[in-house]
Amino acid sequence: MITARYLTKIDQVSQLTEAECRRLQQVTDRFAFRSNAYYLSLIDWNDPADPIRRIAIPDPAELEEWGELDASGEADYTVLPGLEHKYPDTALLLLTDMCGSFCRFCFRKRLFLKGNQELVRDISKDIEYISQHPEISNVLLTGGDPLLLSTEKLAKVLYRLQEIEHVKIIRIGSKIPAFDPQRIAGDSDLLRLMGEISDGDKQLYVMTHFNHPRELNDLAASTLKMVLKTGTKVCSQTPLIRGVNDDPVVLRELFNKLSYLGIPPYYVFQCRPTKGNFTFTLPLEQAYSAFVNTLKGCSGLARRARFVMSHKSGKMEAVGLTENFIIFRYHRAANPDEEGRTVVCRRNPEAYWFDDYEEIIELDLAV
User: Fold this and answer.
1) How far apart are CA 258 and CA 209, in angstroms?
2) Which of 354, 330, 237, 333 lies closest to 291, judged by CA?
3) What is the crossing angle of helices 248-260 and 284-294, to 10°?
4) Are 272 and 231 in contact (CB under 8 A)?
5) H-type alpha helices, 282-352
6) Are residues 112 and 69 in contact, defined by beta-carbon separation less than 8 angstroms?
7) Phi and psi dihedrals of 23, rounded to 5?
8) Tens place of pLDDT for every residue, the chain, 367 residues?
9) Which of 113, 176, 311, 324 is geometrically suited to a Cys-Cys bond with 147, CB 3.0 to 4.6 A?
10) Across the strands, what pairs with 130?
11) Do 332 and 356 touch, CB atoms closer than 8 A?
12) Which of 261, 264, 247, 253 has its CA nearest to residue 297?
């Protein structure tokens, strides 16, 4: 079994030629590179367009000027260093600036830039804030990837949240089941911790990120089964990424494979307009059409995903496309008064984000 050996410099990737490494160095000078031997072993190096390669290996097209580092305005909802509170019932806690591999399309790549100070190593004030806001029933642990913390450090965070009576759901956002499943499968203490947290009056969720069905190999699947046996719930989400899963046949295979394991496909995100991400992003209406076509051939259990944008104002779900209009609904809204509101926009085939639509018709269809 290949265990994770982390690589942080592009010239450590032995499958790349010296010329390729020199060409990609200018990309990694701007946007950091990190991966591991296990995940890179999933790449078909004979295929320049291999989807796993596209996820992990830098692309010169990332240097194209487009987007912004904080495309969803997370700074506007940061109440303390490392703590975001955008929706009344949900708090988001940034625990680390490390991942098993840096996805080239990451929407939070600003965390990996030199000088970024969004994280805080002492979360005592963050925990205190959560404890003083009884409306918070959900806490999402994210980063970076919380499962790269030692089990001992993660346990301290989980135990402190477990003590807060009004926190009923704790979520761990993690791509480790795809990037390095042995991190979970080889750590009985971590599995025991997951079971312990879910055994009381709290429910632990692992919100994992599978972008392509090839990531969901036998090792990843068996690891997910171990997690499920602890009583932890698992959901999977992904952005819709050009050259990775924008083919409905590919995304459908992923949805079905997840459903066979008892894991609901959760959100499919429109790729955020983050700096460096233009090469990975489809026009919104094209992405939505790919999503709709994906659902054909899926059982009801495999088609529970929603196609959403994590917009500054909330999670906007695309729910319909006609000859002239595209229809959105606020699935979650930063302003509770917006919750469930429907917005109809005149179609714009060149739109990549909600802000690219100019003519807006608002319909108050909230129940």
Assistant:
1) 11
2) 237
3) 50
4) no
5) 284-294
6) no
7) -70, -35
8) 344 689 999 999 999 999 999 999 999 999 999 999 999 999 999 999 999 999 999 999 999 999 999 999 999 999 999 999 999 999 999 999 999 999 999 999 999 887 777 888 899 999 999 999 999 999 999 999 999 999 999 999 999 999 999 999 999 999 999 999 999 999 999 999 999 999 888 999 999 999 999 999 999 999 999 999 999 999 999 999 999 999 999 999 999 999 999 999 999 999 999 999 999 999 999 999 999 999 999 999 999 999 999 999 999 999 999 999 999 999 999 999 999 999 999 999 999 999 999 878 877 655 4
9) 176
10) none
11) no
12) 253
Contacts of 19 (CB under 8 A, 6+ apart): none
Q: Would you say 12 and 34 are in contact if contact means Cβ atoms under 8 Å apart?
A: no
User: For 204, left (φ over 0), alpha (ψ -120 to 50), or beta?
Assistant: beta
- DSSP assignment of 174-216 equals E-HHHH-THHHHT-HHHHHHHHHHHTTT-EEEEEE---SGGGS
Extract the tokens encoding 308.
């959403």
Going 301 to 303 to 308 to 314, the CA torsion angle's sign is negative
Q: How far, in Å, CA of 207 to CA of 177, rounded?
A: 10
Regarding pTM above 0.90, the answer is yes
Asked whether 298 and 252 are in contact (CB, 8 A), the reply is yes
State the number of CA atoms in the 13 A half-sphere of 244 facing the CB.
25
Domains and CATH numbers, the chain: 6-363 (3.20.20.70)
Cis peptide, bond prior to residue 67, ω within 30 of zero: no
Question: Whole-angstrom Cα distance, residue 103 to residue 136?
Answer: 30
